[in-house]
Design goal:
Strand content of chain C: under 5%
Shape of chain B: globular
Number of strands of chain B: 20
Number of helices of chain C: 8
Chains: A mainly alpha (341), B alpha/beta (592), C mainly alpha (167)
Low-confidence stretches of chain B: none
Distance between the termini of chain C: 44 Å
Mean pLDDT of chain C: 95
Largest interface: B-C, 53 and 50 residues
Strand order of the largest sheet of chain C: 1-2
Helix content of chain B: 10-25%
Distance between the termini of chain B: 27 Å
Largest sheet of chain B: 7 strands, mixed
Oligomer: heterotrimer
Largest sheet of chain C: 2 strands, antiparallel
């Protein structure tokens, strides 16, 4: 297919949607782990979630760089869960659910690396990385045809700067083809590892060794062992044992729906407030991505507030005597559509 | 059998010892660190355990050593529920500051405030006719300050910090941008900009300035001539601690290690083959060759369990011996060994910053109880002609409301049988407007403020416990009076703050009551322990030379805040770190 | 009274006493733990009075009627009000403050094991981290539930001040 600037921007916005879509599930699984238990599992899920936020921001930088305008507040940006990723071959659904064997299997599937023979092909992908590989080809093709300057028309002022993002990983300011390639490589390798490697390229931090790519980080929980230097995809992990206790989690309802509770009830109010807060978070991030970087502070404050709200929702009985309420992220849409809560 | 021999044996695994070890090992030298306390917080599981203790002990907030366990083999002052106090006294006035004997040391519980001394702090005698001049100047120490700021990871903007002659080389920026300013800071800044207060010698501006802190904030891309800076995360967890999240328990323990502690330096040291770190080894005596004065060995007591009184005596040998165990422990060890004291100054000139709170209500909400304990202060009274007659002081703006709150207000309201929605509303109304200022006063060196030892005062291992003599001179108390009776009323007037300060008698726990000119004040300590082995230009009135080397022993260095001749109004850790780096430079010359 | 009825009464009355909703209280995860502390620290005799007072208050539909009932039946009670005050402190600050020796002799119940006049019982880390005292002010307990880097430089994004209704 022949790329246009328009189709490139559409794909990059789709990338934003996709990177975002995995965040509520990771967030939910992370918060569902009871404090002081499953320390390694909590750290691993949280670290992957933070890197998805990095990917989201990288995608915003890419889109801004090619003259697009990142949107986090349009109808459908927050998917309805269970959700199938747009080009995942429809093999699995992602749920808003507690940390569990099933959730872990889903996470592994989300992050599965591309096989060596997979060819990049827009509109028909098996993995997120294949999608990005196609986007990279699209950028190259457009630069070839129109010249680099005609492609990268965005102002640097819209780029989220490295200092603003602060978990592990490098936030790249995108100003041209080379930095665009680096941003895409960063996303792909953090997710799936450099080809044939458990680790993403060479990000050794403070001399503490490299971090495995997301897929392998989750595999550590499946296999019950950490990867260490020298391990390969074939050999499997040979490091320290990791114990997982699936019982030490809050028994939340999967894919909770606020409208399943009576209007005016306290639980409905709490769920609506959570969704409303999530909508406000996305609005703050969108503002930060589109010329108001100061709104990032508000975004961060809302993220932290949502953690506490989520933990509360995970302890409120749902009424069936077994489960607790859980999370509904989709109510954010009601706010963003301007409708009543 | 020959015992292993190190280039340097360092007594103390806190920030001073860690920085010396870092400089020496970078140059390929072999180092042994003897830490009296346990590994403790170095172990991530133990760290998490201390955090749980913080919660289950009801926060023990404001109690610096709250979550840390009593260690009878290496006791620390101020451990909750300790079977007995660690200090004993020769005076009725108590020394109100604590430290921690554990790997990482007092930087585990410090606030992180990283102020430089101002130039006049180094020349109090020449400028104001008070105390003594240091044998070095601000200019001499400036390069070491920068190196300390690099290792500690200090967050500040140089544009804010150029006052009272504090200068930085062209192009220098701190590793990270200043900590975001709180709503409390913004409130006082708006109220006090352009305002001044009349003190001895003239009108002094009231300026709210961001406090440089060793706490992770946004890295400055211009740092190190554009190389930038990467915030150092928690030891062993790269995804925690890259930014302060506002947990606000720097004291006693940062849950995510956004604040610097010496553990961050030690974690790197521990991976070096030329560095050995031994915990649970309490140095008890320096072995001195009577002819040459050389320290030929450090005798220490190695215990298996922190309690029970059992230990093995061992000796460590180094070309150089470095005492870095903090100002009180360094002095105690020197006195116990009859070392380095031809001047008679070992243990003398013990100084702290007497600390005093004032508090009130702001006219509109400022939303405290969020963020680090303090992010800015009124820094414009740290120097001035008034130092001829009274102490200078800083005024830290508190982000966490009044002391012992919201508990006190809840008790008051419950006492009035206010409950439910009314309680919720009224409590929030009060909390949201609580402002508090902490004044931190300089103290001049005095020979009678001192650490001594007494054979009747020993710990379970038979090591000497410090015996303290301490008091406050008029110089400091006049500063207290000025702060409370002149500066605070000026601030409340300009900020339209409703003053609520009351000093109850008797003073509550953790404070001590002092009366001056008929007014009672409840003072605290600041945890700043300084002066007990001061440097100087003459062996007659100082313990070490300008490079922290003991006059009396050719291979002994005594480093830390104890080297300070005056205390000024800077929290001492950054200065102690700079002095340690400076001392290490001299040690490397010695080792060549 | 059955356990579930006790829990229901305890939760509803706690909401009345604290000014937070039942859902807020459930969200702390401390309902059962705090009921356990109340029972253990006060004894069966006092708990009977507590439940009776709670039921008497909660039978009223309107907030005004409940407030009146509390004014008449709870505040003047030398047995029930101190229990309520300690319970409110437990919810607000995560610790149970001791009831006075005179309270125990007044009720005619023995003091619980380990009782001391100055004790502050923290039943769990979760009691501490879920303290209610800070919430309305848009703040958090020291060392728990941090509000995020830079959050202290802007107005709170949660709490009673957010919609501008309180100043």
């Amino acid at each position: 297919m022949s790329w246009t600037l328009e189709s490139l921007r559409e794909h990059l916005q789709a990338a934003l949607d996709v990177e975002h879509a995995t965040i509520p599930p990771y967030f939910t699984a992370w918060i569902s782990i009871k404090d002081t238990t499953n320390v390694e599992a909590a750290e691993i899920i949280r670290s992957v979630m933070l890197e998805e936020m990095l990917h989201l921001t990288l995608a915003a930088n890419l889109l801004n760089a090619v003259g697009g305008r990142p949107s986090l507040t349009h109808q459908g940006f927050v998917p309805r869960y269970p959700h199938r990723l747009p080009f995942s071959g429809d093999r699995f659904e992602i749920n808003i659910e507690r940390f569990s064997k099933r959730a872990l299997e889903t996470f592994v599937a989300i992050e599965r690396p591309e096989g060596p023979r997979a060819r990049p092909e827009a509109k028909k992908f098996h993995t997120i990385a294949q999608f990005y590989a196609a986007v990279r080809e699209g950028i190259d093709e457009l630069c070839e045809r129109l010249g680099e300057q005609a492609v990268f028309t965005g102002t640097v002022a819209r780029q989220v700067q490295p200092a603003a993002y602060y978990a592990a990983g490098e936030l790249i300011v995108v100003t041209g083809r080379d930095t665009a390639h680096r941003a895409i490589t960063e996303i792909a390798e953090q997710g799936e590892g450099a080809h044939d490697s458990v680790f993403d390229a060479d990000r050794s931090i403070c001399g503490e060794g490299r971090e495995p790519a997301h897929y392998y980080r989750f595999m550590q929980l499946v296999k019950g062992r950490r990867y260490r230097e020298g391990d390969t995809p074939k050999s499997g992990p040979s490091g320290a044992r990791i114990d997982v206790d699936f019982d030490a989690v809050y028994p939340i309802q999967p894919n909770a729906r606020a409208h399943g509770y009576p209007k005016g009830s306290q639980v409905r109010g709490a769920l609506d407030a959570f969704g409303h807060g999530y909508g406000q978070l996305l609005a703050a991030l969108e503002a930060a991505f589109t010329g108001a970087p100061d709104r990032m502070t508000e975004g961060i404050a809302r993220m932290f507030a949502l953690r506490d709200q989520a933990r509360a929702l995970m302890q409120i009985p749902s009424g069936d005597g077994k489960t607790t309420v859980g999370l509904d992220f989709s109510q954010g849409r009601a706010v963003l559509d301007g409708g009543p809560i | 059998m020959s015992a292993p021999h190190y280039d340097a044996v360092i007594v103390g695994g806190g920030v001073a010892g860690a920085l010396v070890a870092r400089e020496l090992s970078k140059a390929g030298r072999s180092v042994l660190i003897l830490e009296a306390g346990i590994e403790g917080a170095m172990n991530p599981d133990t760290y998490r355990q201390y955090l749980q203790t913080l919660y289950t002990e009801g926060g023990v907030r404001g109690m610096p050593n709250g979550p840390y366990p009593w260690n009878a083999a290496a006791p620390s002052p101020g451990i909750p529920n300790a079977p007995h106090p660690y200090y004993t006294y020769d005076t009725t006035m108590q020394f109100m500051s604590d430290y921690l004997r554990m790997l990482g040391g007092t930087t585990l519980h410090w606030q992180g405030t990283s102020l430089r001394l101002v130039p006049n702090d180094f020349r109090m005698q020449s400028t104001y006719g008070q105390a003594l001049d240091w044998p070095i100047t601000y200019d001499d120490l400036e390069p070491a300050y920068r190196r300390a700021e690099a290792e500690l990871g200090v967050a500040a903007d140089v544009e804010d910090q150029r006052f009272f002659g504090v200068w930085f080389p062209e192009g220098y920026v701190y590793p990270m941008h200043r900590m975001p300013q709180s709503r409390v800071d913004q409130f006082f800044d708006a109220a006090l900009t352009g305002k001044s207060v009349k003190l001895f010698g003239g009108n002094y501006p009231l300026k709210v300035i961001s406090i440089p802190v060793a706490r992770n904030s946004t890295p400055n891309p211009k740092y190190a001539l554009g190389e930038g800076y990467e915030a150092v995360p928690a030891v062993g967890d790269r995804d925690q601690g890259q930014r302060c999240q506002g947990n606000s328990v720097c004291m006693p323990l940062c849950p995510v290690q956004a604040k610097y502690s010496a553990l961050k330096t030690i974690a790197v040291l521990a991976r070096k083959p030329t560095v050995e770190i031994r915990t649970q080894c309490v140095a008890s005596k320096l072995i001195i060759d009577s002819e040459s004065g050389r320290i030929t060995g450090v005798e220490y007591k190695h215990y298996e369990k922190p309690g029970g009184g059992k230990f093995r005596v061992e000796t460590a040998h180094g070309t150089l011996v470095v005492l870095a165990a903090n100002a009180i422990e360094n002095a105690t060890l020197l006195l116990a060994s009859n070392a380095a004291n031809s001047s008679g100054q070992v243990g003398r000139n013990l100084m702290d910053h007497p600390y005093l709170y004032v508090w009130g209500y702001s006219p509109t909400p400022v939303y405290p109880f969020r963020g680090p304990d303090t992010t800015s202060g009124v820094e414009s009274l740290r120097d001035g002609r008034f130092r001829q007659v009274h102490a200078s002081f800083r005024a830290s703006l508190a982000n966490w409301g009044w002391s012992s709150e919201p508990g006190n207000q809840i008790s008051l309201l419950l006492g009035q049988q206010t409950y439910g929605a009314a309680l919720r509303r009224e409590l929030a109304h009060r909390m949201s407007r609580m402002v508090k200022i902490g004044f931190m006063f300089e103290q001049l060196p005095s020979p009678t403020n001192r650490v001594t030892i007494d054979p009747r005062q020993r710990d379970e291992l038979g090591n000497y416990r410090p015996v303290l003599s301490y008091g406050y001179a008029d110089y400091s108390l006049k500063g207290v009076e000025t702060a409370v009776k002149t500066v605070w009323p000026t601030i409340t007037k300009f900020a339209n703050v409703q003053d609520e300060t009351v000093y109850v008698d008797p003073a509550p726990g953790g404070y001590q009551r002092v009366t001056y000119n008929g007014t009672g004040y409840n003072l605290m300590g600041s945890g700043h322990i300084v002066g007990t082995h001061r440097m100087g230009s003459s062996r007659k009135d100082s313990v070490t030379d300008r490079n922290m080397k003991a006059w009396d022993h050719p291979n002994l260095y005594v480093v830390g805040a104890g080297n300070q001749v005056t205390i000024g109004t800077a929290n001492p850790t950054l200065t102690a770190a700079a002095l340690s780096i400076r001392a290490a430079d001299a040690m490397l010359k010695d080792l060549r | 009274m059955k356990a579930i009825a006790k829990r229901t009464l305890f939760l509803a009355f706690s909401a009345e006493l604290t000014g937070y909703t039942e859902t807020d209280l459930e969200g702390t995860g401390n309902v059962d733990s705090f009921l356990g502390v109340l029972e253990q620290q006060t004894g069966a005799k006092a708990m009977t009075l507590f439940y009776a007072a709670a039921a008497a208050v909660l039978q009223h539909g309107s907030a005004a009627a409940r407030a009146a009932a509390i004014r008449i039946d709870v505040l003047p009670s030398p047995t029930v009000w101190p229990m309520c005050a300690s319970l409110i402190m437990l919810w607000y600050q995560g610790f149970w403050p001791a009831l006075a020796a005179s309270w125990y002799s007044g009720v005619g119940s023995p003091k619980p094991k380990g009782w001391s006049a100055t004790q502050k019982i923290v039943p769990s880390a979760q009691a501490y981290t879920a303290q209610l005292a800070y919430r309305a002010a848009g703040a958090h307990p020291p060392g728990a539930n941090p509000t995020g880097h830079g959050s202290w430089s802007i107005d709170p994004v949660f709490g009673d001040y957010v919609d501008g209704s309180t100043s």
